[in-house]
């Protein structure tokens, strides 16, 4: 499982010109799932993400968690995080999870986040989405379950 976490001042996601999710300060998170992932992996990833101390404190140091700054989450499914670009110029996506498996884990992650974070918004699995954000920093972290 892979999460690309961007600390944002605000972010939104739209489908066919209609905003379906919007947050203020917090994290916009792209989520990639492979078939080997399960709920235990998702739990570990969610816990790590929520507890990351990547928000600035009064002294400007990255010392505060999402809860410390009352931040929200915008969670977007992103199968392209498993793109394999080793051969040729056209990426292969065979390493990404099947749509059924990936969607089930994506919804599981959303539910787990909603248990701990007051504002959790989401994209639309499999839809053509437009994501807008104002990156804060910029500050971007990549979590890979194989490296946790």
Q: What does this molecule look like?
A:
By secondary structure, the protein is α/β, with parallel strands linked by helices. It has one domain: 3-Layer(bba) Sandwich (D-tyrosyl-trna(Tyr) Deacylase, Chain: A), CATH 3.50.80. Helices cover 20% and strands 39% of the residues. A hairpin with a 2-residue loop joins strand 1 (2-15) and strand 2 (18-23). Helix 1 packs across helix 2. The longest helix is centred in the last third of the chain and has 16 residues, at 99-114. The protein is globular, with a radius of gyration of 15 Å. It starts with a strand and ends with a strand.
Topology:
Elements: E1 2-15, E2 18-23, E3 26-32, H1 39-51, E4 55-56, E5 62-64, E6 72-77, H2 99-114, E7 120-122, E8 129-144
Parallel strand pairs: 3-6, 6-7
Antiparallel strand pairs: 1-2, 1-3, 1-8, 4-5
Number of strands: 8
Rg result? 15 Å
**Beta-strand content bin:** 35-45%
Mean pLDDT: 97
- Helix percent reads 10-25%
Shape: globular
Cα-to-Cα separation, first versus last residue: 10 Å
Task: Supply the key terms.
globular; 148 residues; single chain; D-tyrosyl-trna(Tyr) Deacylase, Chain: A; alpha/beta
